[in-house]
Design goal:
The protein is of the alpha+beta class and about 450 residues long. Helices cover about 55% and strands about 15% of the residues. It is built from 15 helices and 13 strands. The strands form three sheets. The protein has a six-stranded antiparallel beta sheet with strand order 8-9-12-11-10-13, covered by helices on one side. A four-stranded mixed beta sheet has the order 1-7-6-5. It has a three-stranded mixed beta sheet with strand order 2-3-4. Strand 2, helix 10 and strand 3 form a beta-alpha-beta unit. The longest helix is centred in the N-terminal third of the chain and has 41 residues. It starts with a helix and ends with a strand. It is found in: Cell membrane. It comes from Allochromatium vinosum (strain ATCC 17899 / DSM 180 / NBRC 103801 / NCIMB 10441 / D) (Chromatium vinosum).
Length: about 450
């Protein structure tokens, strides 16, 4: 064994490390970051970006890496056995007294273990870690060696990819492959949590991103103003009375109906009334100022409702149930509040729908708080693992377990917690007090 032997071994390990780093770097690189570098004039980034945007080229690139890894590993094993293995076998045969066959078998085993361990550590784990931590930089630095490899391995790539595609089709599996990162909303939510825990996102930023993801899964009925809380104007009332109600209302848009709230005819904007009065003419009737109203099903998801409101340039919409009955009112402010949190307003006060810790250790939660937020809050507090059920709010969840409309203050024991209905607005549960139960407490409802 000469001095060239260890040098060749090191070279083959470095070649393997190059292909490993190139594969993990290109798969892990964010196209947006590469595109930013390309716009700044980085030619390597522009070349890598073309590969990332072309599924077929990306597939060939990964195939070249895999061929390079396989060939370098096989050559390293064969070369090591032909040089290090033979030299070590002669050494063991001479100095250990083993039979020649046993000495060479032991030498082959030692050589295989040594080269495998060295290859895994230096040629696999280290370059993989570096590539995952610095994917964009590694992809740029390995671009030219991989481009030469693509030319060198082109016949093998076509042959092997074609053979693999043929076998996949025989198995009934699509041969179309894509190495792009495609994540479900749940996976994106997990990535946001990990970024927040890693210090890359602040709590408020991560919360806003998570709320944006929920728009496609939550229904508009979770954000709406319930029918019983809608402030409307009955056009059958005298004009002076209507103007007084407009003046006293903290809202700029009010639902307009005739006789019953179940028959809305549109909405009235306070600005239109002010302009009509400022024009100097006598205001005889408000009907001419009524604007058309968008009607949406209450089962619609928030993102779809937002799209329809933007398309129709509507700021508010009424929500109807499956029978066509008025169920609530939705405004753009409600959706923005869901994304950004509570918005201040100089004319009206909207108490935030958030859990509040009381001085005695209990928690006060609004009955209208969405059940998803309640479950997340409970998990963060380590209170309980709740069964969701069919309800969409805390009040609905309690009604499912009470099986009746509560009368006055009543309590419910469930999931190791004591729920006490603190305040009612008619039949609606306004606020709930929550406390931990002692281990000996049993489940049930108390009047």
């Amino acid at each position: 064994m000469t001095l060239a032997t260890p040098l060749i071994v090191v070279f083959l390990i470095l070649v393997n490390a190059l292909y490993v780093a190139a594969e993990f770097a290109l798969v892990g690189a964010r196209a947006t970051r590469v595109e930013q570098l390309a716009l700044e004039g980085n030619r390597l980034a522009a070349a890598v970006l073309q590969i990332l945007r072309d599924t077929q080229r990306l597939d060939h690139y990964i195939a070249a890496c895999q061929i390079g890894i396989t060939l370098s590993s096989l050559i390293l094993g064969a070369f090591g056995q032909a040089t290090i293995g033979i030299a070590l076998g002669v050494l063991l045969d001479t100095h250990t007294g083993l039979e020649p066959l046993s000495a060479h078998a032991l030498a082959a085993t030692i050589t295989l273990v040594f080269l495998t361990a060295t290859q895994v550590v230096l040629g696999e784990l280290i370059p993989k870690t570096i590539a995952l931590q610095y994917p964009v930089g590694t992809a740029l630095y390995t671009y030219w060696p991989l481009r030469w490899s693509l030319t060198l391995f082109a016949p093998f790539i076509r042959l092997l990819n074609g053979s693999g595609a043929l076998i996949l089709r025989r198995l009934g599996v699509s041969a179309d492959s894509s190495h792009r990162h495609i994540h479900a909303p749940e996976e994106i939510d997990l990535l946001i949590r990990e970024s927040r825990d890693g210090g890359l996102l602040e709590d408020r930023e991560s919360e806003r991103l998570r709320e944006a993801l929920q728009l496609g899964r939550h229904r508009v009925r979770q954000l709406m103003v319930p029918r019983r809380r809608i402030v409307g104007l009955d056009l059958s009332a005298p004009l002076d009375e209507l103007l007084e109600r407009l003046d006293a209302s903290p809202y700029t848009r009010l639902l307009v109906h005739e006789g019953s709230l179940d028959d809305p005819i549109g909405y009235l904007h306070v600005k239109d009334v002010a302009i009509a009065i400022a024009a100097g003419g006598r205001l005889e009737d408000l009907r001419a100022l009524v604007r058309p109203l968008l009607t949406l099903p209450s089962s619609l998801t928030i993102d779809r409702a937002l799209g329809q409101m933007r398309e129709r340039r509507a700021r508010i919409a009424i929500l109807v149930d499956e029978y066509g009955d008025l169920e609530g009112l939705l405004s753009l402010e409600d959706i923005i509040r869901e994304l950004l949190g509570e918005l201040s307003d100089e004319f009206k006060s909207n108490p935030a729908l958030k859990p509040v810790r009381l001085s005695d250790g209990r928690w006060r939660l609004p009955g209208r708080l969405p059940l998803d937020e309640v479950i997340d809050w409970a998990a963060n507090q380590g209170l309980s693992d709740w069964e969701r059920g069919e309800a969409e709010t805390l009040a609905g969840w309690l009604l499912e377990r009470l099986d009746a409309i509560p009368e006055g203050r009543c309590s419910l024991r469930s999931d190791g917690l004591l729920f006490e209905i603190e305040r009612l607005d008619g039949a609606a549960i306004e606020s709930v007090l929550i406390d931990r139960l002692q281990p000996a407490a049993e489940e049930g409802a108390d009047a």
